[in-house]
Amino acid sequence: MLKIQPSQIILSLILCLTLYSELSIAASNEMIVKKSVRKEMNTISSHIRDMGLYIASEGEFVKNANKTIIQKHLQELGLLFKNIKIHPVIETQGLTIGQAAIAEQLDQTLVLFNKDQKPKARAKLNAALNLCVSCHTQSPGTIHSEQPKFFQDKDISKLKISDFERAELYFITRDFESAIKLYDKFLNASKKSDDDEFILKALERQLIYYLKIKRSFPLALDHFTGYLKDKRFNDIVNQEISDWVKALSGKSLWDHFDAAKTKEEEMDKFMKNFITDDEEGPIFTVTNSTEVFDLNLSSILMDYYNAHPDTKLGAKILYWMAIIDKRVNDDLFFSLGDYYLLACMEKYNKDPVAKECYEAYMDELEINYLTTEKEFPSEIKAKILKLQQLLNLTEAKKK
């Protein structure tokens, strides 16, 4: 797992501003909503700037002298994210997360902080706001429109952070071209003896860029082949790149994919050809794939679901998006997998796949809670019961 850097926590906070500001852009008949969002985002921005010192430094975050001011900011941020009006694109485009997810995480952050579990609260805050980062790499606005610079280059250069951290700042605020150049600079300055962790993270960010943003196997192949020729990295890193190059040397899972023009029967056939729960057969399974095809497949599924939110394949798509997202994003940003599984159950509770989503969700809950505790907390038990009732699982258990 990537160690949480102080600057990354600030960057994650800033990213939320870009996500929700963008969602406020609406048609003229939604001008009131847009103005409301912008006003509230300015207030959120003010809170974040005021919290900057405490978020950047764990030492400052845990000081009793700062407790009152941090509590105040967390409370007000939580209320702002709960009450902010969100543009309906987050629903119509099939994006299954919203401000409620972040508000829930902020509530949990405040609970931990009030219990004097401040390091955990700080980690929870970072994880909550990284939710925005994961959403940004999947948002339709990222792919189909050029994003304005959130930060000026001169401001970035003044920050006392590494090239890797500068690249991260550009990346999460969607200035991808600037990010890729800085990742290159960081990687080209690295040595074989350097920490693999950050080298691999920089390479993974570039892979995400070429496959989810540029949507180009040839560009990715050319880029990573160049790194292999340089022989700059150690054997472990080179092996990872070699695996990517091997996959990239072939074709995309669906060449010239056009989500809007794709018919439901075509998508159904594609999923049957390339996805299966079995260990052998199609290229993608629960336990067997590569990051290249994971990213490629997630883009295809998300694009289709964005274009056809009422598809009968919705439950199946959300299930596999959850599986992919957990595998790819658990160690990159913040996995949206649980939110996809919840959406699968809540929106498609009559679909047989919803029960598979429930089983996958329960597996995650058991890993997260029952490895250290004997039973689930009361609020989790209540959530499980609600899902069981929604899916008619309580009657099945009685029998």
Structural write-up:
It is a single chain. The chain is mainly α and 399 residues long. The protein folds into 2 domains: 6-248, no CATH class; 262-398. 69% of the residues lie in helices and 0% in strands. The protein has helices at residues 6-23, 31-56, 58-62, 67-83, 89-92, 99-114, 118-136, 140-144, 153-158, 163-172, 176-188, 196-213, 217-230, 235-248, 264-274, 291-307, 314-329, 337-347, 353-370, 378-390, 393-398. Helix 1 runs antiparallel to helix 2 (31-56), helix 4 runs antiparallel to helix 6 and helix 6 runs antiparallel to helix 7 (118-136). The two termini are 43 Å apart. Residues 6-33, 87-97 and 139-145 have low confidence and may be disordered.
Major pleated sheet:
none
The SS-based structural class is: mainly alpha
End-to-end distance, in Å?
Answer: 43 Å
Low-confidence stretches: 6-33, 87-97, 139-145
